[in-house]
Amino acid sequence: MDFIRAIILGIIEGITEWLPISSTGHLIIAEEFIRLNQSAAFKEMFDVVIQLGAILSVVVLYFHKLNPFNKLNPKDKQKTPREIQLTWRLWLKVLIAALPAAIIGLPLNNWLDAHFYHFVPVAFMLIIYGVAFIVIERQWVPNHEFSVFNIDRLPYRFALYIGLFQVLSLLPGTSRSGATIVGALLIGVSREVAAEFTFFLGIPVMFGASLVKIFHFFKNGNSLTLEQFSVLLLACLVAFGVSMLAIKFLMNYVKKHDFTFFGKYRIVLGAVLLVYAAVKAIAG
Question: Where does it live in the cell (predicted)?
Answer without folding.
Answer: Cell membrane
